[in-house]
Design brief:
Blueprint (H helix, E strand, L loop, with lengths): L8 E5 L6 E2 L14 E5 L1 H5 L3 H11 L15 H4 L18 E3 L1 H7 L3 E6 L9 H17 L6 E5 L3 H13 L3 E6 L5 H9 L3 E5 L3 H14 L2 E3 L6 H6 L1 H9 L7 E5 L4 H15 L8 E7 L4 H7 L26 H10 L3 E5 L1 H12 L7 H16 L7 E6 L7 H8 L21 H15 L3
Helix pairs in contact: 5-6, 6-7, 10-11, 11-13, 14-15
């Protein structure tokens, strides 16, 4: 009888292969301060044929079997095989809609544009994918007697919401450091409601990041930001899920917004596993889209990645990616280079208009998705993305988390921007004839063939 597979994973230095740590060790960097990554025993994973992996993932899809009905934990062997099922903290994240943006695609000149709606999840952003992995590992560590008093993160909004919700579900204390006045009210209230200890600091994200790193180093608090590569293990499933939802066909392009850049490396890592384990043979091209007001990766890309200079990120409507010194820069550069990638930027006007244009076709975009859509629009206009190409844009958060942005756009109150597609409510007296006349005029103006 064949022995049961013994799937294994560990932390390993990116710069020094062979420098390893167990996943339950409280460690975030290698001996030189460089980034770690989670490495899997690929030889053991290869013992299972590619078609068997596909069949297993399909059989678990959307089931109620704990914990495999989750889009992340349905691929547990590829994520964190050491976590016991009883220690998994899951809200059945993943399985978000791959939306065929037919109307918007035609407006851009694309026949196959799809939007991966990662905001259609428990806390409204893709950060749930990574946080289920990290918090589950923390629960496992605490069960093993590791001295983890609490979990903490610096955040521009979405990370704090995901950490707070998953930590609350697990009964683990959560601490959040936010830049005061720089995130939306909807993002602020999520960790507050979930009982996290919330600090609003007079600094930007990078300043909050410095504080949380010191807290993790000195005070026995476990770091939950994306420099902790446990997060990447959950987030990498978005690329795997896109391919699975596309009936195991690989898109030509995947476009993703980038701030701290963990999502870019995570996307590539999931796709790497698909190729390495023989489930697919093709690699897509990756586009990382940055806000022009917070674009250190774009600037480095323009120099051929020869040098990197952190910047003081300027205010942007895409507040979650207002980051001038991204922690995962080196991993993101590696992903972009290996996937024949492109880095593009979007101005405040470009991201706002792209979000509004796409909303008119049935979407409801956050400003970060607006950045990705604006980048896509530019690449199509330049001819880099062709009309026949299969394109997937990753929408990172739900538009409802950014209602203030949308209200100000449609009420024409966004500072420094004159909206091209405003749609304010029409205020009229409650008189049938007046309403009918205006209604028919609006139909004629808006839906004229």
């Amino acid at each position: 009888m064949a022995s049961k597979p013994q799937y294994k994973a560990w932390f390993e230095s990116v710069a020094h292969p062979g420098e390893r740590y167990e996943l339950d060790e409280i460690v975030y960097t290698d001996r030189d301060g460089g980034l770690l990554q989670v490495v899997h025993d690929m030889d053991e994973l290869r013992k299972t044929p590619a078609d068997d992996w596909k069949a297993l993932f399909e059989a678990r899809d959307h089931t109620s079997e704990w914990p495999y009905g989750s889009g992340v934990w349905g691929k547990k062997e590829w994520v964190l095989p050491c976590v016991q099922p009883d220690n998994v903290v899951s809200m059945f994240e993943g399985h978000s809609n791959l939306f065929w943006a037919e109307r918007y695609g035609k407006q851009l000149g694309l026949e196959a544009l799809w939007i991966k709606l990662c905001g259609n999840t428990h806390t409204g952003s893709f950060k749930d994918l990574g946080m289920t992995a990290l918090v589950s590992m923390v629960k496992e560590m605490r069960m093993r007697g590791k001295p983890v008093r609490a979990v903490a993160c610096a955040s521009t909004g979405d990370t704090s919401a995901a950490l707070s919700a998953y930590a609350a579900s697990a009964g683990i204390p959560a601490i959040v450091f936010l830049p005061r006045g720089k995130i939306s009210l909807a993002q602020l209230i999520q960790p507050v409601a979930n009982g996290a200890i919330v600090f609003a600091l007079d600094t930007d994200f990078d300043g909050c990041m410095e504080i949380v790193k010191r807290v993790a180093e000195k005070d026995g608090i476990y770091l939950a930001n994306s420099m902790n590569s446990l997060r990447i293990e959950g987030q990498k499933t978005v690329g795997i899920e896109i391919v699975q939802q596309s009936e195991w066909r690989v898109p030509d392009w995947i476009v993703i917004p980038g701030g701290n850049l963990g999502n870019v490396s995570a996307l590539a890592k999931g796709l790497d596993m698909l190729v390495d384990l023989g489930l697919v043979t093709k690699r897509p091209r990756i586009v990382c889209a940055q806000a022009a007001n917070a674009n250190p990766l774009y600037r480095a890309y323009q120099r051929g990645f020869e040098t990197f200079e952190p910047i003081a990120a300027q205010p942007t409507l895409a507040s979650a990616i207002q980051i001038g010194n991204p922690v995962s820069y080196e991993k993101a550069v590696d992903a972009i280079q290996r996937y024949d990638g492109v880095v593009e930027e979007a101005t405040e006007a470009e991201l706002a208009e792209a979000a509004a244009e796409a909303d008119r076709t049935g979407l409801f975009n956050c400003p970060h998705t607006g950045v990705a859509l604006a980048a896509t629009k530019k690449l199509v206009a330049r001819g880099e993305i062709g009309p026949q190409d299969h394109v997937v844009v990753i929408s990172t958060a739900h538009g409802l988390k950014f209602v203030d942005f949308k209200v100000k756009y449609h009420e024409m109150r966004l500072e420094g921007l004159i909206p091209e597609h405003p749609n304010p409510a029409i205020e009229l007296p409650a008189d049938y004839d007046t309403v009918r006349t205006r209604m028919l005029r609006e139909i004629e103006l808006r839906f004229r063939e």
